[in-house]
């Protein structure tokens, strides 16, 4: 039916704005038009809060969702700090991609008792991102591999990777950021907080 309507109205272009379902529909409409001999250019315009479309760095819709969940998470953390007897579960959208969840985890948590927490967390995250950019092949330069590096904290491989980097390339940006975070490890709460959000 879509191919028939497009041909009847003489459309030259069909631009579809949306996420996974919309992109799938674009392909189906194009194939239907091609089979019907209807010359039309079908293009998908990415727009999804999940940010999980292939060959798309970031889609419109993701940034506002990420900013919102980061703000909400910070407010919940402030609330729990005032009466630390709660366990809060925050459910975020994102299907299997995890980008919105990552945005919530990257929100710095202010704490007057640990005035250097934000500086430490920034150096920590910069070190992770720099490691991906400096040590992994170009096709792996994305947040998926940053989150995979985060997951290495629990296995113990995290420190091993960075100690090896400090021996091989001690002046690399990632190695220098890692060394800066080491001086903060004596502040147990600070390091444990970062481990907790990752």
Explain the overall architecture:
The protein is 59% helix and 6% strand. It starts with a helix and ends with a helix. With 198 residues, the chain is mainly α. Strands 1-2 form a two-stranded parallel sheet. Helix 2 (20-36) links the parallel strand 1 (13-18) and strand 2. It has helices at residues 2-9, 20-36, 62-82, 99-105, 117-135, 143-155, 157-168, 173-182, 188-197; strands at 13-18, 41-46. Helix 1 crosses helix 2, helix 5 runs antiparallel to helix 8 and helix 7 (157-168) crosses helix 8. The mean pLDDT is 79. The protein is elongated, with a radius of gyration of 23 Å.
Strand order of the largest sheet: 1-2
Major sheet description: 2 strands, parallel
Instruction: List SSEs in N-to-C order.
Output: HEHEHHHHHHH
Number of helices: 9
Rg is: 23 Å
Structural class designation: mainly alpha
Overall geometric form:
elongated
What integer is the average pLDDT?
A: 79
Q: Could you estimate the helical fraction of the residues in percent?
A: 55-70%
Beta-strand portion reads 5-15%
What is the count of β-strands?
Answer: 2
Distance between the termini: 49 Å
The low-confidence parts are none
List keywords for this structure.
single chain, 198 residues, mainly alpha
Outline the fold blueprint.
Elements: H1 2-9, E1 13-18, H2 20-36, E2 41-46, H3 62-82, H4 99-105, H5 117-135, H6 143-155, H7 157-168, H8 173-182, H9 188-197
Parallel strand pairs: 1-2
Give a short overview.
The protein has 198 residues and is mainly α. It has 9 helices and 2 strands.
């Amino acid at each position: 039916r879509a191919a028939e309507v497009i041909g009847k109205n003489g459309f030259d272009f069909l631009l579809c704005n949306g996420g996974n379902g919309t992109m799938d529909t674009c392909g189906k409409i194009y194939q239907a038009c091609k089979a019907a001999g209807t010359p039309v250019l079908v293009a998908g315009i990415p727009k999804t809060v999940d940010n999980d479309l292939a060959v798309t760095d970031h889609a419109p819709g993701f940034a506002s969702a990420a900013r919102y969940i980061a703000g909400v998470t910070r407010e919940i953390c402030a609330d729990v700090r005032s009466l630390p007897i709660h366990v809060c579960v925050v459910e975020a959208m994102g299907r299997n991609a995890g980008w919105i969840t990552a945005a919530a985890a990257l929100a710095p948590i202010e704490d007057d008792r640990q005035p250097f927490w934000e500086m430490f967390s920034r150096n920590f995250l910069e070190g992770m991102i720099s490691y991906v950019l400096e040590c992994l092949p170009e096709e792996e330069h994305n947040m998926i591999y940053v989150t995979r590096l985060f997951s290495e904290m629990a296995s113990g491989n995290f420190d091993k990777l960075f100690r090896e980097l400090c021996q091989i390339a001690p002046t690399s940006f990632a190695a220098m950021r890692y060394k800066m975070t080491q001086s903060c490890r004596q502040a147990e709460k600070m390091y444990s907080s970062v481990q907790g959000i990752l």
